[in-house]
Amino acid sequence: MTAPRPASPLRILPGDAACALHDVAASRALEAAALARHAPHALMQRAGQAVARLALAVAPHARHVWVACGPGNNGGDGLVAATWLLRAGRSVSATLFGDAQRLPDDARHAWHEALQAGLSIAPLSDETPVDLAIDALLGLGAARPPQGAIAGAIARLRALQADILAVDLPSGLSADTGQRLGGDTVVATHTLSLLTLKPGLFTAAGRDHAGQIWLDTLGVDVTGAEATARLTGADVLDGLAPRAHASHKGSFGDLLVVGGAAGMTGAAWLAGRAALAAGAGRVFVSLLDAQAPSGDPLRPELMLRRDAWRHDPARLARSTVVCGCGGGSAVRDALPTVLSRSARLLLDADALNALAADEALRTLLDARAGRGQATVLTPHPLEAARLLGCDAAQVQADRLRAARELAARHRCVVLLKGSGSIIAGPAGAPTLNPTGNGLLAGGGSGDVLAGWIGAFWAQADTSDPQAARWATEAAAWLHGRAADRLLARAPGSLALPAGDLSEQMRETAALRRTPLRR
């Protein structure tokens, strides 16, 4: 074996750095090119060494390490890791769930070297005290539910009272979609992604199974490769320019919230308060409930303009409009005018449901791009499914595909909310938001996010064609980071009420790119 490389893996979460993501096809192409440039077995040696180094770092006092190895090259990586751990003086054993004589060339070479080093390759004894398990069962190519011995190995890993380090992916998880392939899926404490980062680690079920995510590129330069998607990083907030001393409220744009039907006015007020916290210059609220109180006692800065969408076309043309928060069925009457006259329009919640149910409204939506009017859609999976004419399970089965399809169909920016929110435009690679946690799963959280997106957009240069996408990425990143900061300070937190979220986001924005400590 060659000496281990000194480089350390890159810790990906909590999501400070923007990173490229590569799906299975792109990763396979990069892997093939790298294999052609390196000596036989060299990449697997590097991969195994990387796994061993991380294992020593995350579990330096482990009494025994067990490596579960599958029948492919992922298993070969595990065998190399086990051999390095053995030579480093650790108590380690490995189990091969497959036929050693049918291993791929690199993995078979790793098996022979492991045997020569004296590694115990045998079934794990029930009496062996495992403090760290390495999941090297299934790698990049897994596409069907684990079966037979592999399924049994996954069940064994899940039953262990030990930390688990997954090699490349938790076994049973789709690299492209983050979906469970069926049956059991490994729940890892750490995942070391090799060569490239895979989208499935960051969306759908990925975050619940991958644990802390790390990347080791194995010394291969992948920066020039076309990315399937990208992770948003803290630098997205660099788009917030410092405020000039000679500013006034008109310097930071007007925002109009259209929503708040009877019984749901709170959603519109939440969006308006969020827009104020995010720095919009003037915020107007046009409630759809004619009987609602005339103002928000918590934020008297918010200006009520009843029926502004009906009677004030000039305001629609110069404002960033956030439409749909708490809109109920009443928002349907406002949509034809809002769709036709708003230069910058964000559609959320009930506005999206109305669009899904009315072809004429969708025609008005589709005409906006041709007139140079920018649009942002912010659906959750069920709302996206209604717009796409499918069910939510189909959206969740491939969230990247669903977001791209919606963006292309309506020529707009789409934020598909959920674990690993996805931002897609009509062109270019989508972005995945790496921040956030389950504290955001509460009523009103989406209304706050809509208000922040609208406010960032209102403050952006109106001539910038990427302003809508930047505002969406920046607000989504900040929305999640605020929840992450709260969870880091109070790990036992059960909820983050939407009424408190804007203040958390405002404080987080003030920190800008200060690293989050966990």
What does the model show?
It is a single chain. The protein is of the alpha/beta class and 518 residues long. It has two domains: 10-229, Rossmann fold (3-Layer(aba) Sandwich), CATH 3.40.50; 246-511, UDP-N-acetylmuramoyl-L-alanine:D-glutamate ligase, CATH 3.40.1190.20. It has helices at 24-37, 42-58, 73-87, 105-117, 148-159, 206-210, 265-277, 308-311, 313-318, 331-341, 350-357, 359-368, 381-388, 392-397, 399-410, 445-459, 467-489, 498-511; strands at 10-11, 19-21, 65-69, 92-96, 120-121, 132-136, 163-167, 190-194, 212-216, 229-231, 254-259, 282-287, 303-304, 320-323, 344-347, 374-377, 413-416, 422-424, 431-432. Helix 5 links the parallel strand 6 (132-136) and strand 7. Helix 2 (42-58) crosses helix 3 (73-87) and helix 11 crosses helix 12. The radius of gyration is 26 Å and the shape is elongated. 55% of the residues are buried. The model is unreliable at 1-6 (pLDDT under 50).
Features:
single chain; alpha/beta; Rossmann fold; UDP-N-acetylmuramoyl-L-alanine:D-glutamate ligase; 2 domains; elongated; disordered N terminus
Distance separating the two termini? 36 Å
> How many runs of DSSP E, i.e. beta strands?
19
Lateral strand order in the biggest sheet: 2-10-19-18-17-16-15-14-11-12-13
CATH homologous superfamily of the largest domain - what is it?
A: Ribokinase
Shape: elongated
Q: Strand-residue fraction?
A: 5-15%
As a whole number of angstroms, the C-alpha radius of gyration is 26 Å
- The CATH class of the largest domain is Alpha Beta
Summed over residues and divided by their number, the pLDDT gives a mean of 95
- The CATH topology assignment of the largest domain is UDP-N-acetylmuramoyl-L-alanine:D-glutamate ligase
Strand-pairing-aware structural class: alpha/beta
Number of domains: 2
Poorly predicted regions are 1-6
- CATH architecture type of the largest domain: 3-Layer(aba) Sandwich
The biggest sheet amounts to: 11 strands, mixed
Number of helices: 18
Q: Determine the fraction of residues in helical runs and give it as a percent range.
A: 25-40%
